[in-house]
Specification:
two-stranded antiparallel sheet; mainly alpha
Amino acid sequence: MIWRAGGALAVLAILAVFPLAVTNAAVTTIAVDTLIFAAVAVAWNIFSGYSGYVSLGHALFFGGGAYTVGIAGRAWHSTGDAVFALLPLAGAVAAGLAVVTGVFALRVRRHTFVVITIAFFFIAQITASNLTVTGGSSGILAPSPNWDAATFNNPFYYLALALLVAATGASWLIRGSRFGLQLRAIRDDEDRAAGLGVRAMPVKLAAYVISAILTGMAGGLWFYFIGQALPQFAFDPLFDLSVVVMAFFGGLGTISGPLLGALVIEPAQQYLTLQYTNEYLSEILLGVLFLLVLIGLPRGVIPTGAEKIASLRARRTRPAAGAAPPGEAPAGATPGGAAVREAKP
């Protein structure tokens, strides 16, 4: 626990000083995107990783949060730091969407649930493309904050970092709680968990709503940072694929796995997008990486690494064949310590 706490504090300290040490705008832009996706990956894992219900429709909450901030900011003429005050509203709208969709989607089991979540976010994408309030296919623009160009990304960076810390803290608290134990029991065997007294539907819905709140707030922050929300990007199927890959790469159902996956995959994907003119190359490589992770590391980097370390420790501490356990004399040894050799015939 001491090593884990020290490692977490070290990572947090590095992330806190990063924008102060690195002033390149392109690098800090990638850093903001990475923190936003890390927060979403951790939030997604709170529901899908702990319950075993893989959602491919979290873009519904992400895009819903983005459009909420855009519509509310335009209606209330919010600018500058005042737009950040709309993020809780984005989370509340995402929570409402989660309740409405979750009541129907969570009545079915895992494979059907995946299909239903995909259908929900496609419905949201089509709806946003045809409503006047969302700007239709032209989308909606965010207000441009009048900040210093040299430190323009810093407010977004630190707010994304705060959201990531909140999501990680929530994940840690839930995993160690009775609520988290109920979620993992549902993941292992839902019927048996119900037989032991777990009320599966309320537990799943609560985790779904918590995950949606954090995802909606991340979507609102992303909208303000990008400056525009278009239906095909706010409700993007590749968004869900990216989040799933991050969680599986680091370790599904762990606390730090989705965080590690986001910190590795999102910068790599952004770098490939900037380096190569083929806009589909990063998506192709993302799909290849997903297949490699599922085949080579089905449990993810962190669980597999932990198993390897535990195996090495067990080998080192395991007594050699024929050796006596600590505190006991070897077989055939005299009390004085001299071994009695078997007499030859």
